[in-house]
Amino acid sequence: MLVKFCGMTRQADVDAALRLGADCCGFIFHEGSPRALRPEAAARLASGTLKRVGVFVLQNADAILRTVARARLDWVQVHGAQTLACEAELARVIGPERVIRVLWPGRHASLAGLEAEMRSHAAYCGHFLLDAGTTGTGGSGRNLDWQALAALRAPRPWILAGGLDADRLSLAIVQSRPDGVDLNSGVEDAPGLKNHGKMAAAEAAIRSARAELRTLHRSLGGRNGAGPAHE
Ligand SMILES: O=C(O)c1ccccc1NCC(=O)[C@H](O)[C@H](O)COP(=O)(O)O
Q1: How many domains is the chain partitioned into structurally?
Q2: What is the pLDDT of residues 55-64, one digit of tens each?
Q3: What is the pTM of this model?
Q4: N-(5'phosphoribosyl) anthranilate isomerase (PRAI) domain spans which residues (predicted)?
Q5: CA 30–ligand 1 middle distance (angstroms)
Q6: CA–CA separation, 231 vs 115, rounded Å?
């Protein structure tokens, strides 16, 4: 289960994510966000073994690639209306495994529609991130319909986002069975200011949900959908 703490602005918060054994830290490069930071500020944040993910809403491929270099990014999260051509260019230059494509289940009347959209992006990304709402305004604190996502057949591993906090994480994971989780406003005191106690509680909730899923998987003889939901 990949764990990403997003909307990082402070060194102490990145350090906390590292201590908790997270996989990724996210930096928001979108001026409209209260969590926005400049590439130079992100570059100054040391992140050890964490994958450094840049979140982009309005930028084209050239601008994204400039920020990849300036902020020392490992992965890019395409979180807006970027075209397939933009994603193809990113995948060509940095490799598809370094691209996270954000999609919004709320735009689709059915899982089949979401799966079709996923298939059209699959060649250009290594992960999908599913967020609440219908637009590139992330950090909304709203939840997705986790039960509806349980039947999702995704062509790539997918990360669940949208208002996840320690209280809701276990249920969210057990119901939707994602390959990763993205935590943001649910572990904050205020936008961009993470609360280390909430981060630790979220990490504990993820561990307990994973244990519950393993037990479920074993009790079902490893035969049904308790395993990863991507193809
Ligand atoms: O977090 C923001 O302020 C933001 C603004 C514009 C685009 C994306 C943004 N966040 C990217 C994320 O991946 C968030 O973690 C995701 O939207 C979930 O946020 P939350 O609902 O607060 O858990």
Answers
A1: 1
A2: 999 999 999 9
A3: 0.94
A4: 4-201
A5: 10
A6: 11
